[in-house]
Amino acid sequence: MFETLEDWRDELERTKGNVKYKAVATNEGYRVSEKLPLYFVVPICISEESILKYEGRGIPIWCWSCHNGAALLKMSAFPKEQDDSTSQMQKAFLDGICKTISKPPYELLKMDDLSSSLPSLQDIQTAYTRFKQLFLIDNSTDFWATDVKWFSLLESTNWLEIIRRVLKKAIEVVECLEIQHTNVLLIEESATDLCCVISSLVQVMMDSYSRTKSGFQSLIQKEWVIGGHGFLDRCNHLHKTEKEEAPVFLLLLNCVWQLVQQYPPAFEFTETYLTVLSDSLYVPIFSTFFFNSQHQRDTNTSGESLKTQSGPFRFLTVWDWSVQFDPKAQAFLNNPLYAEKPKPDKSQRKTARFKVRYDVDGSPHY
């Protein structure tokens, strides 16, 4: 669940990242930032003073380590609108951090600003709204009118194009990690939206554990729930304003669905699993996908206000599928065709990754 320091250390050990990276408790009591989790992982060379200096901004946070030692990192960018002196200080700080983690024992570093290489959250929301409109048909006349030009209407929503671009970006990161043996640093304003999408897809593609049910749950907990994705705002749970709304998590599930269709035996879970996971976003009895951060969840799931006549109120976790489904229904979440990947010998270890297939017209097909 990545709620303890030990969970992070276990993940470091599992991925062999504990040689160059360390789990830190600097944010205990949320003294660094309320947006950061209590515990996270940074390069060993990063000092506590550096983490505290700008509330965690400009600090490379570890996501995952490849078998060859290359690592996937993410960083919350500094605000762009700053006075000159502050901007220069932040730039000098960032340059120092990047130089430090580019030296041995660390691999070469590639920085990727996702805000310039991927669609904006507003573009994603607009495309998804258009996509949904295709299915909101009032009568048979409208149905047949849209049926004739269905594929052109689908293409015009731009939703599938966004999925294609996101998958392509993930494959670029995979190639940097695996083929070029290069560390990749994903940069975003908050590092809690598109960073979550790309880092999750890279791990699904490269790490067979992330393609199991327990592994995928662990991945979502690490990158999204504890990682600080703003579920409350992005899903507009309180229906206060649509300004922050964007289907970022649904975009991830759509991308994973594409991979499940292409490589069914590689996944322990089914498209039904992905569907009920997306449905669970809007089931209010679960705390998993309800809050913007670990701090917000902690402050709203404890205290006198949540006590009832029968005792303290307890939020449920979405991962306990028995709350929603009986054992017979839960069987539909498991893929009977799943072929567990055998562990290769260390001398012959190679990471299986997803390749791009090409259609007859030469266009890439993921």
UniProtKB/TrEMBL annotation:
Single GO biological process annotation from the record: phosphatidylinositol dephosphorylation
Classification via CDD domains: PTP-MTMR12
Database matches in InterPro entries: MTMR12_PTP (IPR030576), Myotubularin (IPR030564), Myotubularin-like_Pase_dom (IPR010569), Prot-tyrosine_phosphatase-like (IPR029021)
Pfam family, one: Myotub-related
UniProt superkingdom: Eukaryota
GO cellular component annotations of the record: cytoplasm; membrane
Domain Myotubularin phosphatase: 2-366
PROSITE patterns linked to this entry: PPASE_MYOTUBULARIN
Protein family per UniProt: Belongs to the protein-tyrosine phosphatase family. Non-receptor class myotubularin subfamily.
Designated name of the protein: Myotubularin related protein 12
Lineage: Eukaryota, Metazoa, Chordata, Craniata, Vertebrata
